[in-house]
Design goal:
Length: 300
């Protein structure tokens, strides 16, 4: 019981850190171009995790990777880091954090639907009810639909990122479900490939930015603490917590981000939007808990 309590507190702390990332990103985007910003964050995080891998026995698995597996991991990295994370930073440059937060929560819904065709994982009646709830919540949040023209590109980019995130989640699930390789190996190889491409694209499209001390502090914090450290601690909690417990804890981010956005970013949120967020949060949580009544779940 004590180890479970400690793991729960650690997992809640990780989710808290991940939620603060959105605040740091919004602040950093005032001076740092989005693609370069994302690329710097994840390439520095990759360096940190690479050091961890080199000190871990799992490093021997890297040399044993086949060409086919290298291809899978490289493509996963391009999709999850270059496409997904790049899109999330660009979306945050155009949209309020609360809106991006709600849109991104639909990744689990898309994953559940794609899982029907890609993994032969048919959603249960329980999950279908969650999908319906998530859609109803989004309708409540956005009604009446009136997206300013300046934010339209943010919605388009976010939609691309959500799809890329869902596809990469399916790929990641397929890779990890085989249990052929240590999760740290999968993460380091994919993050290294994706972050390198993302940073290269950012520098090519946006040029070399001038980043002040505050900007570098934000980048380093996001890379070292909110990515490398948080990822390692989260994986540690998964040794104790069930998938159901982890899904519930991870879903609290949908609550933290609006609170931080209002307090630290000065974003406004109405009661109608709060209700929409709550309904979407419940719906997406239900989608993630594949067999919640029996205590089992499918990871996303």
């Amino acid at each position: 019981m004590k180890s479970r309590l400690v793991a729960t507190i650690q997992a809640l702390f990780v989710v808290f850190l991940w939620a603060t990332s959105w605040v740091f990103i919004k602040i950093g985007l005032q001076d740092i171009p989005p693609l370069t910003f994302a690329g710097l964050r994840y390439i520095l995080a990759f360096v940190c995790l690479l050091v961890v891998l080199l000190l871990n026995e799992a490093k021997t698995e890297v040399r044993a990777l086949s060409k086919r597996k290298w291809g899978h991991l490289l493509f996963l990295g391009f999709l999850f880091y270059a496409a997904t994370q790049g899109a999330s930073f660009v979306a945050l440059a155009y949209l309020p954090a609360v809106t991006v937060n709600l849109l991104w929560s639909f990744s689990s819904v898309i994953v559940a639907l794609l899982g029907i065709f890609c993994l032969s994982e048919n959603p249960t009646l329980f999950q279908w009810s969650g999908i319906l709830l998530a859609i109803i919540g989004a309708v409540i949040f956005f009604y009446p639909a009136a997206i300013p023209e300046a934010q339209a590109i943010g919605v388009i980019v976010a939609s691309i990122g959500i799809l890329a995130n869902a596809i990469s989640s399916i790929m990641g699930r397929s890779v990890n479900r085989s249990r052929e390789h240590h999760p740290l190996v999968v993460t380091v190889v994919s993050m290294g490939a994706g972050s390198t491409l993302l940073l290269a694209i950012g520098l090519f499209v946006e040029g070399i930015p001038v980043i002040d001390l505050k900007g570098w502090a934000i980048i380093l914090w996001l890379a070292v603490v909110n990515t490398a450290f948080a990822f390692t601690l989260w994986n540690h909690t998964l040794r104790t917590l069930t998938a159901v417990e982890s899904s519930i804890i991870n879903s609290t981010m949908l609550i933290w981000i609006p609170i931080f956005a209002v307090i630290f970013l000065g974003e406004m949120i109405t009661w109608k939007e709060v209700i929409g967020l709550v309904v979407v949060g419940i719906g997406t949580l239900v989608v993630q808990l594949r067999h919640f009544p029996n205590g089992n779940s499918a990871s996303t």
